[in-house]
Design a protein that fits this description.
By secondary structure, this protein is α+β, with helices and mostly antiparallel strands. The chain has 2 domains: 178 residues, Regulatory protein AraC (Jelly Rolls, Sandwich); 107 residues, Homeodomain-like (Arc Repressor Mutant, subunit A), CATH 1.10.10.60. Helix content is 44%, strand content 18%. It contains 11 helices and 9 strands. The strands form 2 sheets. The protein has a 6-stranded antiparallel β-sheet. The relative contact order is 0.10.
């Protein structure tokens, strides 16, 4: 996934829903880079020395890298990949990635009496702002969908994505309870879930299954065996499926050339992309576009 951020307008009607979204995004923070970046909005910018206080909740998911978090209530806590950081309104805090690792972060900012009630009823607390959930593909899918819907801002999107945030909060809570009962999560399950996230985050690059195996510290044969055991398909085929599904979406944009779609998805050859697309869907990219973009005739 490419770096993305969106800060959203909120109407009085949106606030009356009880839970509303203020911002969302995804960022890849390289090694030894300034954090946050200088182009951060002024109302959200902070430095490590001073920290900051927000007037909202934020849920942040770290899928790669390590770092440090500190808040007035919790004190300093080390951040590992697979951690949720939950920020609370009117709570001083600061956090940053490790200079030697950088990190990947998904986030969503939200507010409303529904969130306040969850905290009041002790589902989430300022004393425990770090929730270790591991590598969960479904959590990344929530963030990706929220980002996609905020990108278009279709009519009625605020209540819709607020519902997704509530679902996201419920999933995080359920996973944390599950992990408390099963502290020693199966190593293979963790490997497969991390691999799925890496594939999803790099669907628009030329990354290979062999590279992912190397990143996970495994030989490709080991990685392929474990991945296929859990998913039923090889990691290479899983990545191809993700690229084909992304291609289907991109082909619905009428002004996007097929060769641009191929390039955006990390294919070196438009011919190979078209051949692969037809093998997997039964249609060439051009025919797929014609079929699914053809206007419906009226009666």
């Amino acid at each position: 996934m490419k770096t993305y951020h969106k800060y959203l307008p909120v109407s009085t009607r949106d606030e009356q829903w009880g839970l509303y979204t203020l911002n969302t995004g995804f960022g890849q923070i390289p090694l030894s880079s300034a954090y946050p970046s200088r182009d951060h909005p002024a109302t959200y910018y902070f430095d490590w020395q001073h920290g900051r206080v927000l007037d909202e909740y934020q849920l942040i998911y770290i899928t790669h890298g390590e770092g440090l978090f500190e808040s007035k209530t919790s004190g300093a806590i080390a951040i590992q990949e697979g951690s949720i950081i939950l920020l609370f309104p009117d709570e001083w805090h600061r956090y940053k990635p490790n200079e030697n690792t950088g990190w990947n972060e998904y986030w969503v900012g939200f507010k409303g009496p529904i969130a306040d009630q969850l905290v009041k009823n002790k589902f989430f607390s300022r004393q425990n702002p770090i929730i270790r959930i591991g590598f969960r593909e479904e959590i990344v899918a929530f963030f990706n969908d929220i980002c996609a819907r905020t990108n278009t801002e279709l009519t009625g999107y605020q209540p819709l994505i607020s519902g997704e945030i509530l679902h996201l909060l419920g999933s995080v809570h359920a996973i944390s309870k599950e992990n408390a009962l099963h502290a020693n999560r199966d190593y293979e399950d963790s490997i497969v879930n991390k691999a799925r996230i890496i594939f999803r985050e790099n669907v628009e690059t030329s990354i290979s299954a062999e590279q992912v195996a190397q990143d996970l510290g495994l030989s490709y044969s080991q990685f392929r065996k474990v991945f296929k055991k859990y998913t039923g398909i090889s990691p290479g085929q899983y990545l191809i499926q993700l690229k084909i599904e992304k291609a289907k979406l991109l082909l619905t944009f009428p002004n996007k050339l097929i060769k641009e779609v191929a390039y955006d998805l990390g294919f070196d050859s438009c011919f190979y992309f078209s051949k692969l697309f037809k093998e997997k869907t039964g249609l060439s990219p051009a025919n797929y576009r014609d079929r699914y973009m053809r206007p419906v005739s009226g009666r």
